Task: structure prediction
Amino acid sequence: MKRIFIAIAVLYACFSHAFAADDITTDENFKFGKPTATELSMTNYEGDADADAVILYDNVLIHYIFTSNGDFKQVRECISRIKILKEDGLRFADVSFLLYNSNTLKSAYSGITAYSFNTDANGKTVKTELKKSNIFKEKVDDNYSLIKFTIPEVKVGSLIEYRYKITTDDIYNIPS
Result:
């Protein structure tokens, strides 16, 4: 029975990598790092005139990989795009997420990429990238660490986006 399970897992891993795209998004119109002119020029949200910010895109893709030592790992690829409409919306530029590590379960993050997009006085789009030196890891307790970063050059009217990947031995728990 164990051999059948391993054979199925290997086949799944092979086919999932063969057909997986490099881009984690499932929306064909979404391109990370390339906001639309409509998104950049947005000044309010028709659905809620009091909105401080609008989440334009938020996606988490979860898949599993089979490692060379015979274990499975869960991989979560997260991506978000947010338009800042008011001063109170600036809080969305502060991003954080938890990593769980214990004696038996390990988690790691990778691939943090974040940008702010602003329009200058000439109408040109200015793209500012998060520097790796501005990503911080803070120990919360014996099992949890908090990964934090603030997207640079964010002001009212900015469009921000970020993505990161979490790889974990915890294959059973899927965050809500």
In short: Confidence is low (pLDDT under 50) at residues 1-25. The chain has two helices and eight strands.
